[in-house]
């Protein structure tokens, strides 16, 4: 069973990722962007993901460390959205069963 804090965290992470995409699109719609600004905007969701999973590198919970490994492997092979989904699902399931 997922507690309310975990569910709120998942929902806020999803909302944050969604808002970074939408707000970036709205802010720069119909404008010519420099290649540097394009690179920054394309990496914002990845930075949000890293800020969420970075504390897990020092976790003492085996479930978090295993989920981190699964997420890193997924990130090397898949795009951002499937990686986020795999990371969230694997973390939830491993925390439940380990």
TrEMBL record:
The residue ranges crossing the membrane are 6-28, 40-59, 65-94
Protein keywords: Membrane, Transmembrane, Transmembrane helix
Would you say which domain of life the source belongs to? Bacteria
Record-given protein name: AzlD family protein
Whose protein is this, by species?
A: Litoribrevibacter albus
